[in-house]
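Sharing a chain and its predicted structure for anyone who wants a worked example. Both blocks are below, sequence first, tokens second.
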Amino acid sequence: LILALHERALVARRADDGRLMWTQSLPMDDCGFILDRDDERRRERRGAVLLSGDQTLVAMRSAGANAVNLFDAATGASRGRIAYSGTLVACAVVGGRVVGVRHIREKVTVDVRSPQGEVLWSEELKAQVREPRRIVTALDDARTMLMLAGDRVSALIDLGAKPAVRWQDTPEFGDWPAITFLKDRIGVFARRQNQQWMMHILDAASGRIAASVETQRRDRLEEGERPVITGDRWVWLTDLRGDNRWVVVCRDLANPDK
């Protein structure tokens, strides 16, 4: 299932051939073409609409809302709505369940709910978080693990039959982290101190930072620009502003500083 936000509509297509499955009309404020200008980074980005789905269920949070609207993945029919207390900073659909990450009074809580809103599992993380907007989440390819990283917090959540927090830590990755999974490793790309961009390799089992290296990049990553871990190599793009061109960088994970 491929989901996309078109002008005033949520669109679902088959992943194998791109054939249209259904459309769901949306209010104008929920369309995927709302752009915000960030003067500091001078890059336009989409409004904060959260969208996730699997083969059974689709969840969408409108920009600024603390609730998700649910849709049947096969037909697009409404499956109801789940409201959250606090600030909902991320949501994901895994195995027909809704995973929510919310911020309440400097604390982050992760919960798993049924489509009817029943809380199946919930846990509050230990770290104090002041800036929920800095929290970023990502699912692994198998959609069984959820990692979150942000304002002095990182955690890996097992979303299997018995959800659990695998580990949690309070590293200072920086702002706007981008997360990449590969088997027993996790890559995190983030900005420190406004202009210092760092790439970190984490051990997925423990959350320990195995390697860190500074990059030349001076701008945040968009969705299609995330670093890729392949085999024992870490590959990403960096923009050389003086030359107005892009360069592909490949590093050996065993010796990332070389």
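Comments welcome. The first strand starts at residue 2 and ends at 6.
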